[in-house]
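A sample follows:
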Amino acid sequence: MEHKLALIGFGTVGQGFAEILEQRQGWLAEETGINCKIVAISDTHKGSVYHPDGLDIQTLLKLVQREGTVDSYPQKEGLIRGLNSIQTIQQTNAQTIIEVAYTDVKTGQPAIAHCETAFEAGKHVVMSNKGPVALAYQSLSQLAQANDVRWGFEGTVMSGTPALRMPITSLAGNRIKRIRGILNGTTNYILTRMEEGLAYDEALTEAQERGYAEADPTSDVEGYDVMYKVMILAQVVLGHAITADDVHVSGLSGMTLKDIKNAAEKGKRLKLLADLMVEDGEINASVQLVEVDREDPLAAIMGPKNAITYTCDMSGDVTLVGAGAGKKETGYALFIDLLNILRDQI
């Protein structure tokens, strides 16, 4: 049996997924009895190709790495070029859409439109874009259910670390009363380096040089990236629909080495924490700098690592530690979502 895929977006994450699929294709076929093929790529900057019988992954990867586009993919009978993202979703024979297009997290577009189009066409979606899950979780979940398709988005919170799947599956039956986490590697790296003596500006510059921070680091250092992850956790794990206005957010602005030292003198560490607490059916959500006791597992998380603690009524505190970003890690999150869709078809 074959299962055909279309990638909407072929940047770092899309290429990471393609590399993993190429490496694990044989194992995937043995595990599920299903042979997965990429039949289409559509990327605003890297070009668009489609062949109903499938595209060669190695050729795609070599082209985009060498030329920056897939425009010179070898011509053969049946190959179609130039489809935009919506046309690729609607007009190709792909059964699952891998949605990794550049998206404005404040609006969730164009990823929300991609999801809506795919679900209405009866196609599954696997994605790493936070916007659609944070901003349109209820409506998109209902649309997917109405069209009997699956929607995977594990990579939206902690990349390849199963921050969503674990509480839903392994902690099932618990009442999760609180979620606390370090969900941004950039800020955690900055705080780690400041604890080692660097000033804020020096630590930020170093994070940018290492590729942990963007040229414009506002979303990371002001806590907005974590805010969207808090909105996802609230809805997906805790079942509470919240908006950005429901999350108290403050980032690293104004923080100094003196603040780091003051915390250390108290036997604590400063961490930018996401915190969701359920009390009397209401949820309190925040993203802010917190002095964390050294005995707390989250205090030990240094550098660009992420971690999340679930406080459960039966399991107690369960802490998950792992990478929160990365080409391979996020590509793996897409891969594992695809695997779960395929297992449902066996």
